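User: Structure with zinc ion, tokens only please.
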Amino acid sequence: MSFQDVEISNECQRADIAAYIDGELSQREELELEMHLAVCESCAEELNQQKKLLRALDFALEEEKFELPENFTKVVVANAESRVSGLRRSSERFNALLICSALFLLVLIGLGAEAKSVLFSFGRVFEQFLVVGSFAFHLIYDIALGIIVIVRSLLFQFVFSSTVSIALFTVIFGFSAVIFSRLLFRRKQI
Ligand SMILES: [Zn+2]
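Assistant:
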């Protein structure tokens, strides 16, 4: 890698500064940032601030050194045991009820839409009863309406057809009367 290949960037890459301190940049990226730091005062200042912060953190961690107590595991185990036994002794039933409620809730959530039908099955039966009832009412109403329509159309057809038949009967009667009279007249003439 030659020095000429590296461009001096005018853009501030603040994220690269932390990576530079942590040694996460590639050789080329490191060189690019160092060249940028040479010309950019604000980035150079940022680098110094981050270094100071890291030093302060390191110092604080050095000072606050602590060791786990020798009986740490024993204390934790004893605490857990007393909590479990306490649970068994005093509020077992309440906890059991709580867990059962939680499980019931989880089951309901798991069932989703089915849980709804289980819970409101009674309501649905009542609803279905209403639907059936209204259906029956509608059926009766439709039948009645149908009968009225049929009777009305039948009545109309009867009236219409009777009028036509009367007219036809009149025409036929008139024709036959004329023909008959003519036949009679002819016979008389003959
Ligand atoms: Zn910069």
